[in-house]
Amino acid sequence: DLANRGRFEEALAEIKQAAQWDPHSPGILESEAAVLAQLGRLSEAGAAYYRAAEVSPEAGGRLALQAALAYAEAGRTEETENSFRFAVRRDPGLHRAWYNLGLFLAQQERLVEAADALREAAKRASDTADYPYALATVLLRAGDRAGARAAAEQALRIDPHHRGAQQVLAALQR
Q1: Burial (Cβ within 10 Å: 0-12, 13-18, ≥19) of residue 1
Q2: How far apart are CA 41 and CA 118, in angstroms?
Q3: Model pTM?
């Protein structure tokens, strides 16, 4: 209730007390993480989301993804990667985690691993054009023009108006 009224510091104190009483409650830990994120304490929010993921068999993948996103925003690269990888281990069908892992690895210039993660995202959500489009950009950066063309064409089969995929194909014409 305190968090809903914007009284985040007070809410955090109450949630921390609840977490001491029940340190294995994913709901309490998730609430703590959300309040910490509202306070701009992103590294701590990532840690709370990660702890929630560890104790939640049902929502562990989603919570680990939240941890990764908080850590990424805080600039904590090692924790970001660990959390993305935990998310896809916990819930292999979580295509958004595969996608974000791929984007993260591409930022790290780990293009082969990035392409693998993006292929997995595209396989698990075959109706999402952004996944093969992102794969196309990574393959283009890696020098795989044929792979980039195929991925961009796949994105356009899903969404014939996808501007990014059209731009990749245009770049390949040059």
Answers
A1: exposed
A2: 30
A3: 0.91
